[in-house]
Structure formats: structure tokens, C-alpha cells
Amino acid sequence: MRGKEILQRIGRVLHVSSSMNVILKAENVPRIGDKVVDENLKSVGTVFDVFGPTSYPYITVKPNVKDPHRFVNNILYSVPSKPERKEMKRKR
User: Fold this and answer.
1) CA torsion through residues 10, 13, 15, 21, sign
2) Domain residue ranges of the chain, discontinuous segments joined by +
3) Which residues pair with 22 in a beta bridge?
4) What is the residue-averaged pLDDT of the chain?
């Protein structure tokens, strides 16, 4: 990871779905597309979906590891993607 990237705790892994996606109960809601890492900063995957009630949402992570089952009951973190740059209007 480059520079000073801030990790955000997403939440605890509840289970792995039948489509092999990792399901978490969200403590903090990341943005779709954010990178997801474990406590050792090893890449786990990317945020694929946020669903459920807004008061206690769930997160789906599309894993990029061979055995996502090993993360069940572990805490995962997100590395926020850089915000999109807005075009600045020039004064004339």
C-alpha cells in the first residue's frame, strides 16, 4: 500500500454465500469498489454490494482469495478508494 492510506473497520464476517461471496455485518459502511483487507493488511477482495436495512446494513465482498471460509468470524477493513476529482470551473 502506498503513502498514508486510512483503514476503516467494516465489520465481522458472518458467512460465505453459496456464490462464494463474503457476507459481513457492517459497523461502518464502505463505498462499493473499495479494497478489503484483513488485520495483516492482506488483500481479501472488493466491496461488491451493500444491502439490508439502513440501521444495520450488510456488506458483500467479492473475494480474490482461494479460501474465503477462513475469514469467518474475523474482522475485515476497507481501504477507501480515492474520491473522484471534480472539474474546477475557471474564472474568466
Assistant:
1) positive
2) 8-79
3) 16, 61
4) 88
